[in-house]
Amino acid sequence: MAEVTQQEQDCFTGITLIVDGHHFKAHKAVLAACSNFFYKFFQEFTQKPLVEIECVSKMALRHLIEFTYTAKLMIQGEEEANEVWKAAESLQILEAIKTLEVRNKTLLLYRKK
Questions:
Q1: Pick from 77, 82, 87, 27: which is nearest to 57 by CA?
Q2: Does the residue 73 lie in any domain?
Q3: Where in the sequence is the domain holding 43, given as residue range(s)?
Q4: What's the whole-number mean pLDDT along residues 102-112?
Q5: pLDDT single digits (tens) 42-71
Q6: How far apart are CA 98 and CA 19, in angstroms?
Q7: Is residue 1 domain-resident?
Q8: Is this structure's pTM higher than 0.90?
Q9: 3-class DSSP string for 40-101
Q10: How far from 7 is each of 14, 21, 23, 59, CA to CA, in Å?
Q11: Is residue 85 within 8 Å of 100, Cβ to Cβ?
Q12: How many Cα atoms occupy the beta-carbon half-sphere of 36 within 13 Å?
């Protein structure tokens, strides 16, 4: 049976991020720990429970929020990887960028064989 995270259970979430009308509930502390963007944002805007994010797609944000809770990126295809990479750069989620770099290096090695 798959383990359900607190984020998936909606336990104690303190922020809702909105992208293209889709709502993503998350914990401020988790986002701030994983993202310089959110760390700075929450220092300035501590009381906003709803935040609209315009610089990323809902698919990319879904992957990145999942990454902040699981440290896993389940990406399929180069187009999806590029979109998640751009979002990770915009939101300054450095560990996701490092994970994508490792993925790209692994793919290059695999293709050379």
A1: 87
A2: yes
A3: 6-112
A4: 77
A5: 898 777 788 899 989 999 999 999 999 999
A6: 24
A7: no
A8: no
A9: HHHHHCCCCCEEECCCCCHHHHHHHHHHHHHCCCCCCCHHHHHHHHHHHHHCCCHHHHHHHH
A10: 10, 19, 13, 17
A11: yes
A12: 8
